[in-house]
Amino acid sequence: MQNEESLVRRAQQRDQEAFAQLYEENFDKIYRYIVLKIGNKTEAEDMTQQVFLNALKSISSFKWKGIPFSAWLFRIARNQVVDYLRKKAKRATAPLDESLASSDSTPELIAEQKIDTEQLLAATTRLTPAQREVISLRFTSELPIAQVAKIMGKNEGAVKALQHSAIVALRKALLSE
What we know:
The chain is 75% helix and 0% strand. The protein has 8 helices and no strands.
């Protein structure tokens, strides 16, 4: 944690290497969170880049409070996802399935992956928004319960309960298909 704090302080002083290291350490977690929330890899990549651009612009206002820097990044990402979903609701579009363009996979493998992904995404739509948030933060972003609790503004017990109910609901949804 001390190393992260010094990295953040250096990044706040416009040390490009420090910010680059923060970027490298957090990019995958933020990307996985966003892609699960919106279901579009290309958009998720763009949005993840935007999260880090916003973080770079606002890093001087970041106040170290002993919680991981990634919690701040997840709040930025969460706000972007909310904005994206609001805008998306206003316009109806059909997403481009990027897996079909992959040349290193067989058609059978592509079909299997698509079915698995579609089943999981369909099952997650049956969850409450809070349950989806917990699943996304805990399993796609691989965050500990304490950090998820801080990001969501809940206590750890509430996050554990939400996670449990979400897993039970996902099991039921996947078994019913």
